[in-house]
Design goal:
By secondary structure, this protein is an alpha/beta fold. The protein is built from 9 helices and 6 strands. The chain starts with a strand and ends in a 6-residue tail after the last helix. The site of adenosine-5'-triphosphate has 18 residues, from α1, β4, α4 and α8.
Length: 212
Amino acid sequence: MFGGTFDPVHLGHLRSAVEVREVLELDRLHMIPAPQPPLRDRPQVAPLTRLELLEAGIGDTPGLVADGRELERSGPSYTVDTLKELRQEYGDEARLVMVVGLDAFLRLGQWRDPQRLFELAHVVVLDRPDSPQHSHAPLPDAPWELLGDREVDSVAKLMQRPGGGLLHLRLPSRMAISATEIRRRLASGLSVRYLLAEAVERRIQAKHLYRG
Ligand code: ATP
């Protein structure tokens, strides 16, 4: 799974999703928008609209799934509940991976039931371009007490088991794109061309989203 606010989904998310799926040889990557992430400000755009943008961005990309399951829950949605559902659906033997950017990972200690997250799935941490570490270098501010000896240094070692491992991954194309910057540009009437999938940009313009 690759969760997020996706407010809006951009090419940093989508290209990372494609590359993670290739590198880990995943059958499927569920991209799951959170309706109201517990630890963040309210997203600017309604959950269903963010899901529509995600669907438009994914288009016919093989293996990527726009998954609206968290939108059906009332109240805040917790990743641990989503992983429990996925674990049930795919079974105990399936290899399940939770993908997070380094910025999200560093706050993982604040998430609901973080220890359980690590038990339910592998955690794969993506470098973002502004992060200083080199591939497989120790993570400086990571929630260490949660990690124990979970960290492995290769995809092969990670994928030997259904879950419980941690891998720090530096993907080939790390893109310095953030939704915050895209929202800022749209609110100021600046161009967002080539930061978003074309279909996503078209919808944002047609619906006058993020105009501030
Ligand atoms: P914002 O700027 O609003 O915080 P964001 O661009 O970081 O948004 P989120 O929806 O918060 O996007 O991110 C969802 C997940 O995608 C998080 O795990 C985040 O770390 C990761 N992510 C976001 N942008 C990138 C990127 N350019 N490359 C790799 N991972 C990213």
